[in-house]
């Protein structure tokens, strides 16, 4: 049995080997003890004490599996406990175990609260010098040397061994048994092992049972049991050598003798074969350190992967969001935001490229949607985007800004790019429906802004788009399709328009807009018969504005109704005041075509006004320009009829200055024609002009309509008109438009009206 069992792999083998060795030792020792004690035991068996008598036994608890605290129930257990319980029982005691808190067994002997103390190899003197007495041997405990690595062991009495301090009593016994042995005591097993590993001691000595427990510690796997160096020590119960002590020892001896051999073996086997050793954190770390490290590493790896994946997903999400924001979902080209960014990026990155930005718009796209369906409209936009993208290089960009509005950042490249785009993009888009067999040509208006050197220093894509849009608007306003380049004047005009449209409401509120009156006179009667209300605007920023400028702008932007309703109401207020003063006459007010779109219930609106200001309806003469009748006859005629049915007078303004369509006169049911004399002073032969006017007057008269001539500037004109049958007149010859108070003064005769 010189075989040395080593290592973690041999852990179970060590336990088995130790158990076998223990059994062999026991077999020998027990045979002898049993033989020696059997006779006296038989003789004394009749004197067993009452089992109810308590015997307090002081034991250490750091010697698993001989004495230890069961972690399950906290009770002191072990081989020593079980054997002692049986021996005590047979001796008539009920053994109760208490943990020795003293530093050594010798000190514990002095503690009278223990009836007995164990384990002792032989009788010792207590710490205070009291002699002790011990029982017969309760069992033979095998002692084994443990070394680090394989060693040829010298005899025991030549060794330097390490032992636990708590085994001091045992050490004394060993010293007696093996004189010459050097023993160093250490506080803990870890200290013992460290001393062995550091070469401070040759081996460690301890109870084999305890080794079977201790060596289960994974970090002690380098320690080896030296079976050849095994010897056995007695395991006795001790107390002070007093009469009471002696009495207890005697009784216990009687119990010990009755301890059955098989019972002893069963107890030892039971404890030595149990896996009593519990791993602490350090053990787990030692045992599974690598595994834990690898698992930790794997976990960290997984976490890193998970974080990276999370980040990738976030990036993906952000990318998706960015795409949604930067790209147009319908066509796949950039959105307005995306175009802004991309264009800025490209212009910054390529200051050497001459760029232009175009703003492109399909004319009447909403009609396309209405006529062919939204899907066809979408297809057209996609087609346009696809064709355009095919032609763009990486230094160029296209974006859909909204609806049917596309912006393109394009190299100027002479006219080559434009010619190519015209052929490969615009022509195809124009023929989109025709190619599908439908009779509709798509019209595209484009405005182009060529970047100036300044634009490369202060990149403002929005501003450039605005410029291009201004040019596009010029094309659109012309009523044609095609393209136009931006110029500075357009931009200034655009800004002025914005100042007019955006400031209207405030201007009305702040009194910047006023109603002036231009007298209308009767040539023959030489008196003022009425007036035309004409508005004037003293703009807080732009100064005096002519209605010839702001009226068309407001008509287009949809703001003219707001202005006109203000004018109409002001006129009604003034008329009411003049009525009260006994001056009863009519005032002509201008109405725009877009007023009808803004308020189809205009006749009711006027009726309300005249009711509110207690005017008779014929005091309001509503002027509708001749051009409006020509462009939108049905609606205008309908409106005229309705207005007249309410008692209002309707006049056709500017007759003769526009696209006069004489046959309109028979269809349009107006009360009075306003003959515009401007063309008389215009180009051409004045003689012929006079002939035309003469015939017009005669024709209007023959049709039974009233008329008034406007734009009368001279006495000759006035004389001529009257002579031809048109005595009612309005013009600078008589008076220019006047503020209300000045007009009032003229009415009252306080100021003169020239020509009268
Ligand atoms: P309109 O309705 O034909 O008004 C006559 C315009 O001719 C006025 O110009 C008037 O000042 C001008 N005028 C009158 N007599 C003479 C003359 O002897 N010689 C010359 N050269 N011009 C004369 P104004 O006030 O600048 O108005 C221009 C146009 O603006 C008006 O033409 C009218 O269409 C529009 N307008 C003016 N006020 C309003 C308004 O309150 N509402 C609407 N919708 N349009 C208005
Ligand atoms: Mg007018
Ligand atoms: Mg007019």
Automatic annotation (TrEMBL):
<feature type="domain" description="EAL">
    <location>
        <begin position="497"/>
        <end position="751"/>
    </location>
</feature>
<dbReference type="InterPro" id="IPR029787">
    <property type="entry name" value="Nucleotide_cyclase"/>
</dbReference>
<dbReference type="InterPro" id="IPR001638">
    <property type="entry name" value="Solute-binding_3/MltF_N"/>
</dbReference>
<keyword id="KW-0472">Membrane</keyword>
<dbReference type="InterPro" id="IPR000160">
    <property type="entry name" value="GGDEF_dom"/>
</dbReference>
<keyword id="KW-1133">Transmembrane helix</keyword>
<feature type="domain" description="GGDEF">
    <location>
        <begin position="353"/>
        <end position="488"/>
    </location>
</feature>
<dbReference type="Pfam" id="PF00563">
    <property type="entry name" value="EAL"/>
</dbReference>
<dbReference type="GO" id="GO:0071111">
    <property type="term" value="F:cyclic-guanylate-specific phosphodiesterase activity"/>
</dbReference>
<dbReference type="Pfam" id="PF00497">
    <property type="entry name" value="SBP_bac_3"/>
</dbReference>
<keyword id="KW-0812">Transmembrane</keyword>
<dbReference type="InterPro" id="IPR050706">
    <property type="entry name" value="Cyclic-di-GMP_PDE-like"/>
</dbReference>
<dbReference type="Pfam" id="PF00990">
    <property type="entry name" value="GGDEF"/>
</dbReference>
<feature type="transmembrane region" description="Helical">
    <location>
        <begin position="285"/>
        <end position="307"/>
    </location>
</feature>
<dbReference type="InterPro" id="IPR043128">
    <property type="entry name" value="Rev_trsase/Diguanyl_cyclase"/>
</dbReference>
<dbReference type="InterPro" id="IPR001633">
    <property type="entry name" value="EAL_dom"/>
</dbReference>
<dbReference type="InterPro" id="IPR035919">
    <property type="entry name" value="EAL_sf"/>
</dbReference>
<protein>
    <submittedName>
        <fullName>EAL domain, c-di-GMP-specific phosphodiesterase class I (Or its enzymatically inactive variant)</fullName>
    </submittedName>
</protein>
């Amino acid at each position: 049995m010189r075989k040395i069992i080593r290592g973690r792999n041999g852990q179970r083998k060590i336990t088995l080997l130790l158990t076998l060795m223990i059994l062999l030792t026991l077999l020998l020792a027990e045979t002898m003890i049993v033989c020696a004690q059997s006779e006296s035991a038989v003789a004394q068996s009749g004197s067993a004490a009452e089992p109810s008598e308590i015997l307090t036994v002081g034991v250490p608890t750091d010697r698993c599996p001989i004495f230890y605290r069961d972690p399950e129930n906290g009770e002191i257990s072990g081989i020593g406990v079980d054997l002692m319980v049986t021996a005590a029982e047979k001796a008539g005691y009920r053994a109760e175990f208490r943990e020795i808190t003293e530093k050594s067994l010798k000190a514990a002997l002095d503690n009278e609260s223990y009836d007995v103390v164990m384990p002792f190899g032989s009788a010792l003197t207590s710490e205070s010098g009291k002699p002790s007495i011990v029982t017969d041997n309760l069992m033979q405990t095998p002692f084994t040397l443990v070394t680090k690595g394989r060693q040829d062991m010298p005899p025991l009495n030549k060794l330097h061994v390490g032992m636990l301090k708590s085994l001091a009593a045992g050490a004394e016994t060993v010293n007696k048994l093996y004189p010459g042995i050097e023993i160093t005591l250490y506080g803990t097993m870890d200290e013992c092992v460290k001393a062995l590993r550091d070469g401070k001691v040759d081996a460690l000595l301890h109870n084999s049972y305890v080794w079977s427990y201790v060596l289960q510690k994974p970090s002690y796997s380098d320690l080896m049991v030296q079976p050849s160096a095994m010897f056995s020590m007695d395991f006795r119960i001790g107390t002070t050598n007093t009469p009471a002590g002696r009495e207890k020892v005697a009784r216990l001896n009687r119990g010990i003798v009755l301890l059955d051999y098989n019972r002893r073996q069963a107890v030892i086997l039971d404890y030595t074969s149990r896996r009593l050793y519990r791993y602490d954190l350090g053990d787990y770390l030692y045992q599974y350190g690598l595994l834990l490290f690898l698992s930790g590493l794997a976990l960290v790896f997984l976490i890193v992967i998970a974080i990276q994946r999370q980040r990738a997903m976030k990036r993906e999400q952000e990318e998706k969001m960015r795409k949604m924001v930067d790209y147009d979902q319908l066509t796949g080209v950039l959105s307005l935001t995306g175009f802004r960014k991309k264009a800025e990026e490209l212009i910054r990155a390529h200051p050497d490229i001459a760029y232009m930005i175009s703003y492109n718009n399909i004319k009447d796209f909403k009609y396309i949607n209405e006529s062919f369906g939204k899907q066809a409209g979408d297809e057209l936009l996609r087609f346009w985007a696809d064709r355009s993208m095919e032609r763009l290089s990486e230094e160029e960009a296209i974006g859909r800004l909204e609806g049917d509005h596309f912006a393109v950042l394009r190299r100027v490249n002479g006219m080559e790019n434009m010619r190519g785009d015209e052929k490969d993009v615009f022509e195809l888009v124009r023929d989109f429906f025709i190619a599908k067999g439908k009779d509709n040509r798509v019209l595209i208006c484009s405005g182009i802004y060529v970047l100036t050197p300044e634009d490369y220093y202060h990149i403002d894509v929005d501003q450039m788009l605005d410029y291009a849009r201004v040019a596009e608007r010029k094309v659109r306003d012309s009523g044609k399709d095609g393209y136009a380049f931006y110029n500075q004047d357009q931009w200034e005009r655009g800004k002025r328009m914005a100042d007019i449209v955006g400031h209207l409401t405030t201007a009305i509120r702040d009194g910047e807009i006023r109603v002036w009156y231009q007298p209308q006179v009767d040539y023959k009667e030489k008196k003022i018969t009425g007036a035309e209300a004409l508005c004037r605007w003293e703009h807080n920023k732009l100064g005096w504005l002519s209605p010839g400028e702001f009226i068309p702008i407001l008509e287009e932007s949809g703001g003219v109704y707001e202005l006109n309703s203000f004018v109409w109401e002001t006129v009604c207020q003034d008329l009411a005041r003049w009525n009260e003063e006994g001056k009863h006459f009519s005032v002509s007010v201008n109405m725009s075509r877009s007023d009808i779109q803004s308020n189809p219930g205009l006749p009711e609106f006027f009726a309300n006004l005249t009711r509110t200001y207690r005017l008779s309806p014929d005091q309001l003469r509503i002027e509708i320009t001749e051009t409006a009748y020509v462009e939108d006859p049905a609606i205008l005629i309908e409106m005229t009829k309705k207005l007249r049915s309410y008692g209002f007078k309707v006049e056709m303004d500017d007759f003769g200055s526009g696209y006069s369509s004489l046959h309109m006169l028979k269809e349009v049911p107006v009360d009075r024609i306003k003959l515009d004399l401007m063309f008389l002073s215009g180009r051409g032969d004045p003689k012929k002009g006079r002939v035309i006017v003469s015939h017009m007057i005669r024709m209007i008269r023959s049709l039974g309509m009233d008329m008034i001539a406007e734009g009368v500037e001279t006495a000759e004109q006035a004389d001529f008109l009257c002579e031809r049958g048109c005595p009612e007149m309005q013009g600078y010859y008589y008076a220019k438009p006047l503020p209300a108070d000045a007009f009032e003064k003229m009415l009252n005769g306080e100021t003169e009206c020239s020509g009268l």
